[in-house]
Amino acid sequence: MVLAAASVGTAHADAILTFTPDTLVITPGGTVEFDGTLTNTGTTDLYLYGDSFDLEYSDLTVDDSPFLFGGPLFLSAGDSYTGAFFDATADDATLAGSYSGTFTIQGGADSDTFDDLATADFTIDVGSPVPEPKSFLLLATGLSMIAVVLLRRELLVCK
After folding, report:
1. Buried b vs exposed e over 19-49: b needs ≥16 C-beta within 10 Å?
2. Rounded to whole angstroms, how far apart are CA atoms 141 and 144?
3. Which residue has the higher pLDDT, 54 or 124?
């Protein structure tokens, strides 16, 4: 699975959210942490109260704990936060395809304001899982054993 973010969106004029890198690779059953930068482009402090996200596919989940528990409580004018924003997880039943979502930072200029400050789009491209080398080794061992048994039977019949 490939997780790609088409970044830059602004929901409220004084903040910009971008995700980096643009593409992350993941297989079904895996989790990836999505990093980015939130910049206060305004002239006043921004208080950061939370986030919201939209991803309309039940086999893909977003966990916003990295930003909620590790992000700043506010950004001074001109400051930026660079770090983890959310984890994306694809369960084992995730079908191959391309799925889009949005992630929004919420807050405001004071404790009474709760606006959407910045929004960034992301896309999750799900691919097929790659079998582990152990699986191939187990298959090869099983086929070898079957070949040995068949060869022994044939040799016993020929005698």
Report:
1. beeeebebebebebebbbbbbbebeebbbbb
2. 5
3. 54
Going from N- to C-terminal start, the domains of the chain cover 2-128, 130-159
**CATH code 2.60.40.10 for 2-128:** yes
Q: Is 139 left (phi over 0), alpha (psi -120 to 50) or beta?
A: alpha
51-89 confidence digits (pLDDT tens): 999 988 888 899 999 999 999 999 999 999 999 999 999
CA–CA dist 145, 71 (Å, integer): 56
**Cα radius of gyration (the chain):** 24
Residue 40 has pLDDT above 80, yes or no: yes
Which strands form 2-4's sheet, in the order they lie side by side? 23-25, 2-4, 115-126, 97-108, 46-55, 74-75
Model confidence pTM above 0.90: no
> Number of C-alpha atoms within 13 angstroms, CB side, residue 8?
0
